[in-house]
Amino acid sequence: MNSRALLTSSASRRLLRPVAELIDQRIDRRLRAAAAADAADREALRDAAEAVKRQQLTLDLLLGSSGRGLSRIVSPGPLNRLHSEVAELAGDRDAAVRNVATAYRLLVALESLGTGRIAGGTMNICGKLGTIPLLDPPNDEILEIGTLYGMFSTGLIRMMERDGRSPSVTIVDPFAGVQLQPGTPQRSDPSGTPVDEHAVRTNLALAGPAGVAARIQKGFSEDPDTRAAVSDRSYGVIVVDGDHSAEGVAKDLEWAEEIAAPGAIVVLDDFGDPKWPGIKEALDKHLTGTTRFTYLGKAALSAFLRAS
Ligand SMILES: C[S@@+](CC[C@H](N)C(=O)[O-])C[C@H]1O[C@@H](n2cnc3c(N)ncnc32)[C@H](O)[C@@H]1O
User: Fold this and answer.
1) How many angstroms does the Cα of residue 75 sit away from the middle of ligand 1?
2) Separation of alpha carbons 17 and 25, rounded Å
3) Among 90, 94, 154, which Cα is nearest to 127's?
4) Per the confidence metrics, is the pTM higher than 0.85?
5) What strands lie across the sheet with 302-307, from one edge to the other?
6) What is the 226 CA–ligand 1 centroid distance (Å)?
7) 219: left (phi > 0), else alpha (psi -120 to 50), else beta?
8) Is there an atom of ligand 1 within 6 Å of 176 CB?
9) From the CB of 242, is ligand 1 less than 6 Å away?
10) Nearest alpha carbon to residue 157 among 208, 121, 101, 197
11) Which atom of ligand 1 approaches the CA of 221 most closely?
12) Residue 141, Cα to own-chain centre: how many angstroms?
């Protein structure tokens, strides 16, 4: 009898049955254990995914776009780029990284506690707030042309005070109930808050005594009466963020030439933003003429100039 015939004979099968059953039982046990482990792994994965979703939901409520139009969640590429741009403007990388982080926390805090929002993208806001104190303006008089809710000036007061300065703010805005912008349809703000002086006062108060003392001039920046009311001093910082048309920016730059203190910093918001081509157009043209301003560079979508 060959070996195959020997193994398949009925006597052999009877003899080997207990061994085969034992092997079957072991395989069964292993399969059940593996299935149980798989189920436990799947449950752990489901729990982890649920936890991540809850964290994402919480983060979205805190930092998402709802109620302010743009999300405040940060990505590494734009943040690294902003660090480099601010460092180049300020000549100090450590201070740039520190100020951008400080500005970011302040932005989130102000939008959480204030009325309305700060206009624009997160990197642009942090770039402006972080860079201005590092450029060591020659005095503490600050003029913001176009304020929306006054929240940027509120933040700038804090950033200057953190640098040991004593800021004194003047604001010019028509406070038309909505954001006015030539050539763009007027629509209600994503924050739902009306653009009025009351909202601005509430926000400025968040910056303490310097905010409460801020001077607010209702009107258009090109209006001679508005200009006369606030041209009583030389400003160390001028933020141009009102009428975004080329003509509007050109007029604000001409006015800034007259009221900027020697060494003043002029910030031109939304510079290079494809949505507002008139801003770059106006600055490029302005810098080809007779001017006290030198272009220092840009951080995100803001250009920085220094007056002679
Ligand atoms: C982009 S928002 C300002 C945002 C604010 N600087 C911020 O950082 O949150 C522009 C503001 O300028 C105002 N504005 C429009 N035309 C103006 C003008 N000719 N003079 C002054 N403000 C003007 C708008 O009504 C609006 O409140």
Assistant:
1) 28
2) 12
3) 90
4) yes
5) 215-218, 168-173, 141-145, 235-240, 260-269, 302-307, 293-299
6) 14
7) left
8) yes
9) yes
10) 208
11) 20
12) 25
- Quick: pLDDT tens for 12-35: 888 889 999 999 999 999 999 999
Out of 124, 171, 179, 276, mutate this one to test ligand 1's pocket (max ligand atoms within 8 Å of CB): namely 179
152 lines ligand 1 (CB under 6 A): yes
Q: What's the CA gap between 281 and 284, in Å, rounded?
A: 5
Give the tokens for residue 125. 């806001």
Whose structure tokens read 């072991």?
Answer: 26
- The response to whether residue 297 sits with its C-beta less than 6 Å from ligand 1 reads no
pLDDT tens for 137-196 read 999 999 999 999 999 999 999 999 999 999 999 999 998 766 777 777 777 889 999 889
Atom of ligand 1 nearest to the CA of 146: 12
The count of residues in the chain is 308
For residue 229, what are its two tokens?
Answer: 């009311």
In 3-state terms, what secondary structure has residue 220? coil
Contact 230 CB / ligand 1 (< 6 Å): no
